[in-house]
């Protein structure tokens, strides 16, 4: 397999993973979060009972790590292709800052407050306020995931256009 073909395959996989991650976060936003946060703190306790076998915390950390590895690998492979390189670099930046770092700094402490400490440590009002903050902040994370996926796909298209042979017009 040629280096370009391998790079095209890896960048396609990265764009696909980024799109799947965005889709997962979108489904979480539309289907799961309304049920989890509709009547905090009671709904928080109900969701913990529901997510006994598996839940979002079992999917998104490994998917996020896979996305980072795919993005970094794609960036290394496309570093010599300026038409795509900056798009992939921007997608990796969006992923690291807008999703990973933002999640670590904003969401992980709120997850601990709502799902680990709960009513044993915090008042009902504090848990409700934390749930509202979580949902409001989640909109930015959803948007950044969409930006990451769009930038990854744009980088893939730019790379494909740069390395694909141009069709020659038929002779008249």
Structure report:
With 172 residues, the chain is mostly helical. It has one domain. Helix content is 83%, strand content 0%. The protein is built from 5 helices and no strands. α1 runs antiparallel to α3 (56-77), α3 (56-77) packs antiparallel against α4 and α4 (82-117) packs antiparallel against α5 (124-163). The chain is elongated, with a radius of gyration of 20 Å.
List the helices and strands and how they pair.
Elements: H1 3-37, H2 42-50, H3 56-77, H4 82-117, H5 124-163
Helix pairs in contact: 1-3, 1-5, 3-4, 4-5
Rg from alpha-carbon coordinates? 20 Å
- Class by SSE composition: mainly alpha
Structural domain tally: 1
Tally the beta strands: 0
What sequence of helices (H) and strands (E) makes up the elements? HHHHH
The separation of the N and C termini measures 36 Å
Largest sheet: none
- The shape is elongated
Helix content: over 70%
Instruction: Tell me the fraction of residues in β-strands, as a range.
Output: under 5%
The pLDDT mean sits at 94
Total helix count? 5
Q: Spans with pLDDT under 50 lasting ≥5 residues?
A: none
């Amino acid at each position: 397999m040629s280096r370009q073909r391998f790079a095209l395959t890896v960048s396609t996989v990265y764009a696909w993973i980024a799109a799947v991650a965005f889709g997962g976060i979108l489904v979480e936003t539309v289907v799961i979060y309304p049920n989890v946060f509709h009547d905090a703190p009671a709904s928080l306790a109900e969701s913990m009972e529901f997510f006994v076998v598996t839940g979002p915390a079992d999917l998104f950390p490994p998917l996020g790590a896979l996305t980072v590895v795919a993005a970094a690998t794609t960036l290394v492979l496309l570093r010599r292709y300026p038409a795509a390189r900056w798009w992939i670099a921007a997608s990796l930046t969006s992923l690291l800052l807008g999703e990973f770092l933002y999640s670590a700094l904003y969401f992980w402490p709120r997850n601990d407050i709502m799902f680990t400490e709960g009513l044993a440590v915090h008042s009902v009002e504090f848990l409700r306020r934390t749930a509202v903050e979580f949902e409001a902040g989640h909109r930015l994370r959803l948007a950044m995931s969409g930006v990451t996926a769009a930038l990854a796909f744009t980088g893939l298209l730019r790379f494909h256009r740069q390395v694909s042979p141009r069709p020659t017009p038929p002779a008249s």
